[in-house]
Write a structure and sequence with these properties.
Shape: elongated
Radius of gyration: 17 Å
Number of domains: 1
Largest sheet: none
Structural class: mainly alpha
Strand content: under 5%
């Protein structure tokens, strides 16, 4: 159980922390310093390095979460409300990430490669909105995970 919880928390920290850094720190700095071609190229390369970590986090979160749900709580019936809510918000985050990966991120990569900056800007704006939603969900999930058992 201790290993599963540790891996689960580390995966969440990597994913949510990465989104927080990208949204709150990197995005405003890139907007203020870089012209669209450099900014889009930067984001393409940032996502190229960050998204494999998100894939790993997603797999670890899902694997350890389901293992704890069934091995520790005995299934959905044995889990308290906060575990159900964590699962729901986590699955929503995963669905949003999968959409980002398979749709706007792919289009962003193609636009940057073709130097189609307006198209790349549209894709980056969509990714930004979706990551913003995921960041909010991630922070809510962390709050539920850390405080839910005490309510």
């Amino acid at each position: 159980m201790a290993i599963a919880i540790t891996l689960h928390v580390l995966a969440a920290v990597i994913w949510v922390g990465g989104m927080f850094f990208a949204w709150m720190i990197l995005r405003p700095v890139a907007m203020g310093l870089l012209d669209p071609p450099q900014r889009l190229t930067l984001w393409r390369q940032v996502f190229q390095r960050f998204f494999p970590w998100v894939w790993a986090a997603l797999i670890v979160l899902l694997g350890t979460g389901l293992w704890m749900l069934f091995a520790v709580f005995g299934g959905m019936g044995g889990a308290r409300w906060h575990v159900h809510l964590m699962l729901l918000t986590g699955l929503a985050m995963m669905a949003i990430f999968l959409h980002v990966w398979f749709a706007p991120y792919r289009r962003l990569a193609r636009a940057v490669a073709a130097e189609e900056w307006p198209q790349g800007g549209q894709q980056l704006a969509q990714i930004r909105r979706l990551i913003g939603i995921n960041l909010i969900l991630g922070l809510v999930t962390v709050a539920i995970a850390s405080g839910g058992r005490f309510l």
